[in-house]
């Protein structure tokens, strides 16, 4: 379940915390059960997310040192996540099918960043990865008039991570830290911000920041409302280059896949 960044240039890539209390030390009456509820919600949510497809619009930008757009490309994809479970080992893969002009090869071969997997950053709270992070409970903050509990997280070095950087055929674990905005009533995630500090400057990565927002989606055949990715903004800087990718997800639809095995007989 590894996510990566890629680009065609140098890379083949793919908060100060004050007065915060570790969630594990909180009493249930103070919200100490929030992390457990989020983990349960994410496990269920992953199954829901793998049963839908959507349209993904991607705007890739390469920026000059003064922040102006030097190169850009707009693409549209049919997007879905494929979830498999073989022998207890969970595997999660993104599938993108280019639509229209995005299906044509870029004749200029412009060196733009390709960022994958940021729609699935909720995996930070999945039981498979949760033990790899230190979580701390922050303040309550309103988003669009609704109160959300802020939960900060920091990846523990040497443990598994849901994100990796691919460089010259090698993968490097990303030491993600950031903040999630969680509905304290439903334990659903409304927003996740992540960053990578200066720990990877030795291989050329000066900084990485992502901002993923989720929005409620209701299907015609169901009364329940699901919070799916709405937008992911990814910004990457090296010593000489600066990229910004914006992914917009819309038009969610349910789909059904059925398989049938037949044994040939003579």
How would you explain this protein's 3D organization?
This protein is mainly beta and 266 residues long. The chain has one domain (19-253): outer membrane lipoprotein receptor (LolB), chain A (Clam). 8% of the residues lie in helices and 51% in strands. The chain has helices spanning 34-49, 127-130, and strands spanning 3-7, 21-22, 52-63, 69-86, 89-99, 113-115, 133-143, 146-155, 163-167, 170-173, 177-182, 189-196, 205-218, 225-238, 242-254. It has an eleven-stranded antiparallel sheet with strand order 2-7-8-11-12-13-14-15-3-4-5, with helices on one face. A four-stranded mixed sheet has the order 6-1-9-10, with no helix packed on it. The termini are far apart. The model is unreliable at 1-31 and 257-266 (pLDDT under 50).
Structural class: mainly beta
Output the CATH class name: Mainly Beta
Distance between the termini: 41 Å
The best one-word shape is: globular
Count of beta strands = 15
Task: List the SSEs and their pairings.
Elements: E1 3-7, E2 21-22, H1 34-49, E3 52-63, E4 69-86, E5 89-99, E6 113-115, H2 127-130, E7 133-143, E8 146-155, E9 163-167, E10 170-173, E11 177-182, E12 189-196, E13 205-218, E14 225-238, E15 242-254
Parallel strand pairs: 1-9
Antiparallel strand pairs: 1-6, 2-7, 3-4, 3-15, 4-5, 7-8, 8-11, 9-10, 11-12, 12-13, 13-14, 14-15
Task: Kindly list the characteristics that best describe this protein.
266 residues; mainly beta; outer membrane lipoprotein receptor (LolB), chain A; eleven-stranded antiparallel β-sheet; four-stranded mixed β-sheet; 2 helices; 51% strand; disordered C terminus
């Amino acid at each position: 379940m590894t996510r990566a960044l890629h680009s065609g240039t140098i890379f083949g890539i793919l908060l100060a915390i004050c007065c915060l209390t570790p969630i594990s030390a909180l009493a249930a009456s103070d919200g100490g059960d929030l992390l457990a509820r989020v983990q349960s919600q994410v496990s269920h949510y992953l199954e829901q997310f793998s049963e839908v497809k959507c349209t993904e619009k991607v705007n890739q930008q390469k920026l000059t040192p003064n922040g102006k757009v030097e190169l850009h490309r707009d693409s549209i994809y049919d997007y879905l996540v494929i979830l498999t479970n073989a022998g207890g080992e969970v595997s999660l893969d993104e599938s993108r099918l280019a639509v229209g002009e995005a299906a044509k090869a870029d004749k200029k071969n412009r060196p733009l960043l390709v960022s994958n997997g940021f729609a699935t950053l909720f995996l930070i709270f999945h039981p498979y990865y949760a033990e790899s992070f230190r979580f701390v409970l922050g303040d309550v903050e309103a988003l669009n008039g609704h109160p959300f509990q802020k939960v900060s997280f920091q990846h523990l070095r040497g443990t598994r991570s849901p994100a990796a950087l691919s460089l010259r055929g090698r993968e490097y674990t990303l030491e993600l830290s950031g903040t999630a905005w969680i509905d304290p009533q439903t334990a659903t995630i409304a927003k996740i911000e992540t960053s990578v500090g200066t720990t990877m400057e030795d291989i050329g990565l000066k900084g990485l920041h992502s901002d993923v927002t989720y929005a409620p989606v209701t299907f015609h055949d169901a009364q329940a409302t699901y919070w799916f990715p709405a937008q992911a903004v990814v910004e990457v800087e090296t010593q000489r280059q600066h990229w910004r990718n914006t992914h917009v997800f819309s038009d969610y639809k349910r789909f059904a896949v059925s398989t049938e095995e037949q044994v040939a007989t003579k």
